[in-house]
């Protein structure tokens, strides 16, 4: 199936080396939230070229499976798996609209589901709910966790805010649920141009609750010690003040109806500027 990411394989792969925030903030914060995966079965939704699937497998996951709608991304990931032999698996499917025809049997097959920059590409509430439903479907009846790096609902659209980190984000005004935005990232000599959709914290949490997740927390990213030493605290200050992404963690117990009281507070958007911070919840890791 066609995807806006079909032509972005090289840029996506090179971005880890060319955009230091990906390793020192994104990967550092995301993997800290994921925790120890030794012996665990992990499904990575929207796996792209397999960056995190490979990493999770190397860090001890008993099974690491990547699922993406982009045939080009999965073809690349499979070719690399053929060379490296890590034991990672890759599937082509649209996780936002699962059906018996296009989504392999994943029912209860994983202990943990992850996603990095997947939820912001859901164009409708139904698609957002579909992604969350797929995550829950992949976990056992007894429950499990879904950990996602997702767009900060209150990310900055101020010109130049994220340019030191290799990217620009812009969005149409006025901002509402599902407002289209655009990400432009400079990756060495390559340029990544993709559209995304803005969803509020409440919209994310509604979709997660509808899928059966009953404990939801938002986690602010942090910079690694290596990143601090290499680039200095001043370099990271603007990003950490208003990061473009947050970590969203959702836990599910046995399949029972969740209650609104089980959801942690949404990111704080009380900052008077046109972009604002999002606060940790009490049960963030």
Question: Care to give the gist of this entry?
Answer:
By secondary structure, the chain is of the alpha/beta class. Helix content is about 30%, strand content about 20%. The C terminus is likely disordered.
Supply database-style keywords.
285 residues, alpha/beta, Rossmann fold, seven-stranded mixed beta sheet, three-stranded antiparallel beta sheet, 8 helices, 31% helix, globular
Task: Lay out the secondary structure.
Blueprint: H1 9-18, H2 20-34, E1 41-45, H3 51-58, E2 63-68, H4 71-84, E3 89-92, E4 112-116, H5 125-138, E5 144-151, E6 167-171, E7 179-187, E8 190-198, H6 201-211, E9 215-219, H7 225-231, H8 233-241, E10 245-252
Helix pairs in contact: 1-2, 2-7, 5-6
What would your notes on this structure say?
Strands 3-2-1-4-5-10-9 form a seven-stranded mixed sheet, with helices on both faces. Helix content is 31%, strand content 22%. It is built from eight helices and ten strands. The protein has helices spanning 9-18, 20-34, 51-58, 71-84, 125-138, 201-211, 225-231, 233-241, and strands at residues 41-45, 63-68, 89-92, 112-116, 144-151, 167-171, 179-187, 190-198, 215-219, 245-252. The protein is α/β, with parallel strands linked by helices. 44% of the residues are buried. The radius of gyration is 18 Å and the shape is globular. Helix 4 links the parallel strand 2 (63-68) and strand 3 (89-92). It has one domain (9-153, 198-255): Rossmann fold (3-Layer(aba) Sandwich), CATH 3.40.50.150.
CATH architecture: 3-Layer(aba) Sandwich
Average pLDDT across residues? 86
Give the low-confidence spans.
Answer: 256-266, 269-285
Strand order of the largest sheet: 3-2-1-4-5-10-9
Instruction: Tally the structural domains.
Output: 1
Helix percentage range: 25-40%
Q: What oligomeric assembly is this protein in?
A: single chain
Alpha-carbon distance between the two ends? 37 Å
**CATH class designation:** Alpha Beta
**Count of extended strands:** 10
Overall radius of gyration: 18 Å
Structural class by helix and strand composition? alpha/beta
Please identify which CATH superfamily we are dealing with.
Vaccinia Virus protein VP39
Shape: globular
- CATH topological fold name: Rossmann fold
| Individual helix count | 8
Largest sheet: 7 strands, mixed
């Amino acid at each position: 199936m066609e995807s806006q990411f079909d032509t972005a394989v090289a840029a996506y792969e090179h971005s880890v080396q060319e955009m230091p925030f990906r390793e020192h903030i994104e990967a550092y914060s995301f993997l800290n939230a994921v925790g120890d995966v030794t012996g665990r079965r992990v499904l990575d939704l929207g796996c792209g070229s397999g960056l995190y699937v490979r990493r999770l497998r190397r860090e001890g996951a008993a099974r690491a499976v990547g699922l993406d709608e982009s045939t080009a991304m999965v073809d690349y990931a499979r070719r690399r798996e053929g060379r490296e032999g890590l034991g990672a698996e890759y599937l082509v499917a649209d996780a936002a609209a699962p059906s018996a025809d296009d989504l392999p049997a994943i029912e209860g097959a994983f202990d943990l589901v992850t996603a990095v920059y997947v939820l912001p590409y859901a164009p409708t509430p139904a698609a957002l709910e579909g992604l969350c439903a797929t995550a829950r479907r992949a976990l056992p009846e007894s429950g499990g966790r879904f950990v996602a790096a997702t767009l900060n609902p209150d990310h900055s659209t101020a010109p130049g805010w994220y340019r030191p980190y290799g990217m620009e984000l812009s969005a149409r005004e006025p901002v509402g649920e599902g407002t289209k935005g655009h990400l432009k990232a400079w990756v060495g000599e390559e340029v990544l141009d993709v559209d995304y959709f803005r969803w509020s914290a409440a919209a994310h949490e509604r979709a997660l609750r509808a899928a059966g997740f009953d404990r939801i927390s938002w986690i602010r990213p942090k910079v690694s010690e290596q990143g601090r030493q290499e680039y200095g605290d001043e370099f990271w200050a603007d990003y950490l003040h208003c990061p473009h992404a947050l970590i969203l963690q959702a836990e599910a117990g046995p399949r029972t109806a969740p209650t609104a009281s089980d959801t942690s507070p949404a990111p704080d958007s009380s900052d008077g500027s046109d972009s604002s911070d999002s606060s940790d919840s009490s049960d963030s890791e």
